[in-house]
Queue: 4 jobs
Job 1
Amino acid sequence: MEEVSKVTETPLVPPPLLARRARQQQPVMSVVKSKLRKNLTCSGSKVQKTLTSFFPVVRWLPKYKLKEYVWGDVMSGMIVGIILVPQAIAYCLLAGVEPIYGLYTSFYANIIYFLMGTSKHVSVGIFSLMSLMVGQVVDRELFLSGFDLNDDPTSKVDSFNFTDDDPQTVDLMGMPCNKECYAISVAAVVTFLAGVYQIMMAVFQLGFVSVYLSTPMLDGFATGASFTILTVQAKYLLGLKIPRHHVAGKEIQDRYKDRLKIPLPTELVVVAGATLASHFGDLNARYSSSVSGHIPTGFIPPKVPAFSLMPRVALDAIPLAVISFAFTVSLSEMFAKKHGYTVRPNQEMVAIGLCNIIPSFFHSFTTSAALAKTMVKDSTGCQTQVSSLISALVVLLVLLFFAPFFHALQKCVLACIIIVSLRGALRKFKDVPAKWRASKNDAIVWLVTMFATALISVELGLLVGIIFSMICIIFKTQNPKVSLMGRVSDTDLYEDLEEYTDLTPPPQVHIFRFQAPLYYANKESFLKSLYKAVGVEPFLELTKRRKAEKAKGKTSKQAKANANKKNGDVFIGPIHKELDFHTIILDCSAIPFIDSSGTATLKVLVKEYKDIGVSVLLACCNAPLIDALKKAQVFGKNDREMSSLLFYTVHAAVLHADQEHTAAAEGKSEDSLF
């Protein structure tokens, strides 16, 4: 009671408003001219800045600390290169192309990222998921062109002798092209387009697209794609008629990884042993088992991508571009945070774009950053992208000297390498219970994306995952948490009455918090939750009052008539019940933005409650929210009611409501005296 008396003694003065900074908007033409002048002027310092920005290697390589960095870079580069060779050959099975093209892809990607990447640790090159997506496009185009997908010419003929004597050829850019030629042509053109899309995303600053690829969605996508990869490899595994043995090197490495100084090159050991066994056992001739076939040394002359195929694969390149960029940037930022440096996402997009565009002229297919090889680089002492240069040199040695030795390598062994590399993605199933406990929404997104990718297709699985993730976010904003708030005793703090104890709601004042943006999709949810919380819907209340007034008029007439007939007995009609509150305060601290539908909703809300004698006050609005409300004239013409409707704290709004109610009550009592 003492606090209320103090409040009533305070003079009724409008709360002070914060002074906004005056921002002068420059004319559009002057802005355009200044930007053109800034970007088109040429000077020595600007050329140097552009060069170092486009080629970060020019900036960091002169500062390279040879004694401190060289050992870690050489070791990590050699180890990754050794791992990369068998994987590059194996992942060509997924891409549907010859093994040599995987080596080309790994070589060029490492060189280009060394020159243009901003991450010190990321390993860019051939990646199973990208290879799978490329392979699906290649298989579809081969089928549409009439090639037999089950034909395995690598065990019979040399796939690089593109002659008219081949059993089946098609005309491509005026030249005869057999199955292997057509496959790499499709892979190269879809890779070229993916790189073009990535460069366009960089130019137009569209890197924000990757934010719609949430971590649960990407994990589910990778796990679902792993099932597709397993089914793709089944034909190679089952095509071998002799018993196969389990490859346990990865399990040994995982168990003893704390004791091992460097990762075991299990893939290379398996490839070497299997190649020797296949060669000396003559397995291809005895059992007609599928082998890698002839892998030539050196480089094939560059070739312009088949532009005639672009209209057929233009849409297929979009998910490739987005996924490739998303994995590269996310890995770059993850390892940059771990080691305390920064990366430039836009430059990363340029780098990965050129890692696709340039190699597409050299018979390569889509690349991306790979988590497993990046973690190997990090664990083996990588300091800079010099390690990528070392890895490229290892691949170059294989291309120049050792490639023919892989002729007898069984494809079933390559399939084993691919399947073993999927262990990490498949083990994500063990994390599902933990995901469910941490966030049911994230777990559902993971499951939906995984099943869609595994059961429908990789591209549609990605689309389903993105759409479902957005639907979940929209659902959250349409059904956000709402709460009535109470005051912490003897403080200016107000919190949720359902979440905290020892809170006291202000007398005859409801404080309502809506924890979501207020926009067209959830305005009805906002109104329903508010009406339910305060217990009064203004339109219905106003209708009841009008009916009561109308009934009161009728009963008063009847009462007078009955009084004349029944010696003055008066009939009493229905009596209107007064509301138990006089003010609603909307705590807008959890409303990040509002659209025109939201402002219109608030404007109508203020008016309707005012019609039944209830004030609606706004508290804790951010600056953009205030600007939107002013434009919608929620505060009246020329914002004349702004000082009486808008408050910067909930407590200031509560004090103002008490003052207004007390002043109104005193005015009524004075009127009753007269």
Job 2
Amino acid sequence: NFGEKVASSSMMSAAAVAAAAVNAAVSMKQLEAPDVAKSYIAMDRNTTAIDEDGLPLAYDKDLIEAYWSKERGALNRRWGVFVGKAVPFLTKLTTLFIRDGKIAEKEIPALSRKAREELQDLGPTFIKAGQMMSVRPDVLPQSTLDELTKLQDSVVPFDTATAVEVIERELGGPLGQFFTSISEEPVAAASLAQVYRATLNDGKDTPVAIKVQRPDVLGTVSKDLYVLRRAAEVFQGLFERFAPQQRTNYVALLNEWAIGFYTELDFSNEAASQRRLRNMLLEKNITGVMVPDTIDDLCTRRVMVSEWVNGKKLSSASEEQIGKVTPLAQEAFLTQLFEVGFFHADPHPGNILLLDEPTESGAQLALIDCGLMASIDETDRDNMISAVIHLANKDYASLVDDFIKLQILPADSNRAAIIPLMDKALSPYVQGGGYKKYEEELKKLYGMEDGSMSSQVGGFQAMTQDALTVLNDIPFSIPPYFAILGRAIVTLEGVALTGNPDYGIIMESYPFIARKLLREGRPEIQKALQEVLYSGADSESSGLKFTRLLALLNNAAGSVSTQEGAAFVDLDAVPEDGISLEQGLKFILSDNAGSLRNLLEGEIDNVVDILSRQIFRRAIDEAVVALTPPRPPSLPFLGDLLPPSPKIDEVPLPIILPSFQKDGSLGRRPSVSVMTIREFTDIAAPKLDQDEEIFAIGIAQGTEEFVGKDIADLIRGEKVLSPRS
């Protein structure tokens, strides 16, 4: 209504005034280039080589700052270009929103086209940002995705003559000295470089791909780093003004992204990263995804030559094809992230090729463009694994601890306030389906799904109150490395959602996490495994939970039981369509279950002791009942003339017992002792206490689910002496 529009207009005006004030303050500052001391980007830190303009060929903070101070006028002009593009577009969006209360469907195609054109005009840095958003069908409407997708393939190439000049200058000789042929036009043109198909002058005409950097792109990107840094300072200033409790350093977040973008221009570093990634996937036996080999002698800072592979970009594949190969890409990414801690941080569809034919090793995908790689240390990886486990089974209390270790939350966090908000914010995400599904689930959560005015107003008020609580009362922060990690996850998840609209990366990654828990023997992983197998909020017993062990074995095989509408992992349920006994035993005895075997070594004696005692005691009871003669009959009027049959288990009998030496070894001569069967049973197989009985029941229940009732009955000690047993 009119009042709401006036209020919205006033809010927009106030925000604009605040932004202008912060921008004026930022413009007076001497901005520093991002510091790489704590960067997670994989880069060459041992060179200070510069180009003809004085720009470092590999990222160097001091050299970039020197360039900025020399080019102050050029930087201000570039900032003016950025503002001249961004402000009119944002003003248009704001006007439409105030006028209509939303962005009408009919306006979206023209706005999308305008956005794509503006990004193209702004150049490589902003084209990259558009490419990243082009893979999020859950966030943006289809017409916007169609426009942004053009940024992956429709970048205007520079002429081949210039490319040949760059190649010859970089390699130090005429083209024919290195190649017998080269395509007349580039086979692909991107924001930073373009690629030609060529054949090596190696006597075999080996087909290769030549990646050639765009002329003058280093200077443009250097100026854009300043523009983005200045924009981040403005954003940081606004957040500090309106949400002072927040501790996220948005400048540091952008710094990490900016450093990574600059590093992509160092093709020598890219070649080294590509070799490392290729070797790592081979070492980890990732057969579904390959990385092209590099021709090291022909790789420089501005030219890279690598093995040619025949395939098409995943962006050109059908949704069915994308859905089919998503598990392969996911396995490769999770291995990079959680196994090694060295991962491809830009896995968009243009950087993943669907091969025309599988390789000899079975690879169906090729991962290319390794210019942006990042490293995560082992401690952070372990904390992330713990967070995935707790998020997948809705253990938000433990998730708070994970977030504290990951420095997302401070150690003095108010758990009572955080946990309910975690449930509201994260539970819809775990269910999968991306942003659109997330929005639907949020509306259900806040009672807004029926569309009535009262529910919309009430739900919006509750949502606003929760948002204000987050902003004002919970001082969370996003660590800088999340900028690069988040980009990778967002991009990969967007690709997966194209093939499967219900895809959820948390649940899809859980089988991988389960396999890692069962395989690795490091103390941190052992601790996480113990938590899964031993803990339980509804159980007073601290012993191994056999059903959880069976469930985890099934999880590792890809079969996961869920709870709450298939949203969360049920740690205590064995899937009905799970693995067989033979498959389970093979897995436990394989190289993939080393961590589990280490943990179970301490449990084997306990399990054998408890089960053997239970089976022995009940077998004795069964034998006593079977061997006890029937009670003599009573005569009418005379009663019992004969004495009752003796209780066999109370009759003293000579029983041969082993003897032992002083050192505990078995003696040569046994001894004979007179005792009842009941006394002997209590010595040889003491009665189970309460915890042991609970443990035995759990093993029997798990065995019945996993193997069947007959063997479960044997473990329970039922009908031990029957022919069936």
Job 3
Amino acid sequence: MAWDNLMYKMGFKTTKNVVYNKCSEDIENERKKSTFDPLELTHLLDGGPEKTLERREREKLFLSDPELMDDVPAEYLSHKEKYELSIKKACKLFKKVSQLRDQGGGDMEMFKQMLSGMLGSAILKDGNPFALHYVMFVPTIMGQGTLEQQALWMGRAWNCEIIGTYAQTELGHGTFIRGLETTAHYDPKTKEFIINSPTLTSYKWWPGGLGHTANYAIVVAQLYTTGACRGIHPFIVQLRDEDTHKPMKGIKIGEIGTKLGMNATNNGYLGFDKVRIPRENMLMKNAQVLEDGTYVKSPSDKLTYGTMMFVRVVIVQDVASYLSKAVTIAVRYSAVRRQSELKPGEPEPQIMDYRTQQYKLFPNIASCLAMRFAAMWLWNLYNNITSELEEGDMERLPELHALACCLKSVCSADGAKAIETCRLACGGHGYMTCSNLPATYGLVTAACTYEGENTVLLLQTARFLMKAWHQATSGIKLTPTVAYLQSAVTSDTSRHWEHSLQGIVRAHQDVAAGKIKLAATNMERRIRGGISPEDAWNNTSIELTQCAEAHCRAILVNNFVQTLETFKVSDSLHLVLTQLCELYAVHWVLQKSGDFLRPHGTSRDDINNLQTWLETLLAQIRPNAVSIVDSFDICDEVLSSALGARDGRVYERLFEEAAKSPLNKEPVNKSFHKYLKPFLKSNL
């Protein structure tokens, strides 16, 4: 009661979050400085005013439901309580989604919102135990199941009569899926597959929802039939009884424990003791096993990677969303927080007036847009190439695979680093869980290792780039994203520096081409020296990852510029977007200045001029910083941050969050009488 009385005297409520009628004066003044209409940018990012209205209506519909909102911050719950609450809310959430769909009020966009880093993460803050059901289980059946299998499973899965997960990663193997140890031996006598975990390291480890949620899984295992191993294939396996939820015979299953973040995702382990499943449970759209055990090979082994590519596209979208939240929090806080003196005797300035703070935050605002536009472009490319695959055209599949790998790798790594920078930019208050920055970092840094460890993914992109380089040197026409290599074959990449946005795009491409050429040259040199191709690849792998990253950065910068050229917006908004695009491009040249000085014709004076350009851009963006993040249109419930609320009432909200601590429910904790008082009286 003492704490409640104190808070009451100070003017704070202690039960529910306060809605303040008046914004912070500093925040209001920031919005008055804006040189463009933030709503115009919101509409642009959403895809039009109608899309903005639909999104806001969905947010209102779900966020106004008291059963979906938290009364107690999740950090004060036990691990078991977190999971149970997440299941309760996930069931309520997706039941509501299904009802809306059945009433004609829901579409795929609504499902994307529920599974995204925006609305979905506002309701299921520490991970979604149903995520893999919708993101991997259902898409895999759609992409790799026959029409008959889709008819059998899709209705039940889509209506949540069953809950599935995707069990690929094992305790001993992750990204190297050819090394998976789980086996599936075909028995032609019974027309069944026998799924088995022959070793401890063959246990499935990490799948979301596997611990105690899913009752079915798509299990990736090594197929054995007619005495031969046929490589990895997907199988649908029932894990738990549909009525009792008890594990099926031969299934060893549980949860793997707590993690840095995503602790409500219910990641699990799974072992098999000679579990038999019907032949029809192998997904056979591509490869098939006939009743007598005859193996019918897939037209391409790459067709089985479709689900992974889809997920990597989704990850790029999610990272952009989470980073948007982080920069919104940090920018708004930086507009309210005042610290130190710029000039003696003058009032303390907003910390956003410090050039160092601008340097921490503004390039990351630009990164939000670069990632968002890249995600849109990659999503469209994915859909186009998927349509081509349905027609039997697999020509562009390697290009899509390479792009999904490098964009997932670079964007997740950049996103995690950027969110940590935003946390540090908020000082000590950013360390508090109520800032939502620690949790956001935990969600994004996980993406650096799940669905493909980033270094391994860069090396997969590098394989595509090495092939592309050899095609370029042979005069073979290249696919669009690597077409810039053709000019590198016939001309020197160290062309004269051009101090313009288009010049920076070409410079990024020149650097990427130079690194690709160098890696290919060093590979060939090592092989000619008697080293095996495999060892030569390993010995060149540092350069290979670097050339893949450089290629990806060239893609990101070029796509940002090209996307900007397609927009039909007001002059005022176009100017702001151009400034952000330039900042993104210049920032990455300066971050990688050694690369640009080495193979490219960039001089020290050019680098100095770029530094001046960057500092000018920071000053130009400063008046619009709050309005730009306002344009992301992230409501307070989704932002879930004491530091980043739209009203800017940071200090009031920090006290409000402190009041929620269970330790503040009584003036004296029982530990005083039990431990502290005897200790104080013990006369050490």
Job 4
Amino acid sequence: MDNESETQVDSSASGRRDPGWKYGRLVNEKDLNTIICIFCDKVTKGGIYRHKQHLVGGYRNAKKCRKCPEHVREEMEEYMSSKKNQKEQMNMGSEYVNEDLFGLEDEDISEEINSRTNITNISSGGSNRGGSGGRTFSSKKPRQKGPMDHFFTPNAKMVVQNQRSGKMNQTTINDAYKKEARERACTLITRWMYEAAIPFNAVTYPSFQPMIEAIGQYGVGMKGPTFHEGTMFMQSIDASSMIKTGEKMFELLDKWVEQVGEENVIQVITDNHSSYVMAGRLLELKRPHLYWTPCAAHCLDLMLEDIGKLPNIKRTLERAISLNGYIYNRSGLLNMMRRFTGQRELLRPAKTRFATAFITLSRLHEQKNNLRKMFTSSDWSDSKWAKEQKGKTIANIVLMPSFWNTIVFCLKVSGPLVRVLRLVDGEKKAPMGYIYEAMNRAKDAIVRSFNGNEEKYKEIFNIIDKRWEIQLHRPLHAAGYFLNPEFFYDKPEIEHDAEIMSDLYKCILRLTRDPAKQEKVVAEVSLFTNAQGLFGNELAVRTRKTRAPAEWWAAYGASVPNLQKFAMKVLNLTCSASGCERNWSIFENIDDSNEWLIGRMEDEDSHGGAQDDFVFDDDNLTWGDVARAAGAEEARFDTRARARASSSIIPPTRGIVSSSRTLPSYSLIDEDEDGDMVDSADEEDGEGYKCGDGNDDDDDFVDLEEE
């Protein structure tokens, strides 16, 4: 132990950070190459790296230390492994690589990685650096690429042509390393092709080699394309003259299917405008082996829009927009708000107008207590804004119990739908295998948030069911649900659901052209349902919920090749056209959140009028209601009136079965134990706002925000 302590002091004094120095000492302080092991007194001549090989064992160049404690061995092995990964990262970006690099001390390598990256110019003789046997290691900084490189980087296709014509056959001292690096790259490319089930002859396509060359020209750290960036842009067309004509839109879509090749098209996605719906139906009639699908993100946004039109929710949105706009249009008041909220903003722009609305309501709810404290503080009461009529109105909104209670209601019904919107509009995974279950869970969450009280959510379910049944639901969604191993093996009822099975067979008939192959696909379904063949493999069972569905089929579907091809075709599909719109639309930078900054809704001046004004700020009674009650105006039959007259039995969403999984709760501070909205008298305390104890359930809505 004395030797070990002495060595540790010496290594610290000399500034050496490699942990290997703790377990060895130098024979000669001027020779860093010869080290004695403190456990067995074995002398190694190869620097600190060779000494660590001696401690760990298993290396040809060093005999294993028999007396090394196990914890020391593990420490050294872990350290060497991390350093090896670090060196490999450095090598990937180096133009020249020194094979003797691994003989250097690891702390020196760290410095090289952090400061120079490239280690070059190996020569015999010269000065001795680090006791490396008389070899000289000089280094140069990596060449940094700048904006001008854009103009001088050779075209990837031209580079490939020159390589094939033999114009770039010059050899360098790097050839040996480049061969090894190429083999490593080829291994990773091949592994990707295995997992994605890409035919090997794909590498013969003319576009393959220019792709590889372009990646090489980018250099280290290139981020691969996202799910939507894999989208191929073909052409921009001014369709303003034909947008309202279904036949014209059909001709346009059909032309592109013809150009791409019908055999290469599985799905055509458009938004839900009536002309697109007609065009999609006509396209399916003419092209029997593809599907037209409405954009799921657009359908969900329309659901949120319909919910936002309900009188009580619309009034709450108007108040929230007015509150937000008033604060954000006054810099002094905005700074005051930020002091009370801890620099948290109220506005949270999202991908669609109505997602922005409900996510911003979530932000407001999160800052409820802070806003109430602000509008009852001396900072506010002493300000000029507290004396303005508009300021008094805004303060009344913040201190109004019904405003916050309705926000809670809005979040309960919109939160699950915003999560589905994020799923279908995201880029992390193909959503086709998830949307069916996601809609099911969204409805389950809404039911639970109201403790099963149907009167509170039946209007919302009418809106959801209308959009799902008439617009959104398609056979592809049911087929993706059936083929997703994460859900299928947990829910035996899926196999016995007549509608799901009917949609599955519809997809098989439509997407598989050859009748003989159709029969083979159907025959192989039983192997999947019974978890036979590779489906019963331990790895397959263990990764049902951890791997993406299409990847899982690529890995374990070899025993059912026809069904495997069909499953991957379905599960790799998207559900939305929003990714394409983001990539190519000239309108992608238009701000949908302007109404939240202006302080009024877009249609506030053009719809409703005086009859929609509320008689009392804290009630839903309008002057139009008063006029109709007095017989001065004919009654209007709006959504709420129709909902009251409808049957109390709400039909389930088409084809959606009950979820057996436990979903997150949506109980909130503004409810009593029975799920009813809290009476305003019960909610208010003596100071006019509810005091937070830090243990409420406000966090239930935090995950509404976009990641």
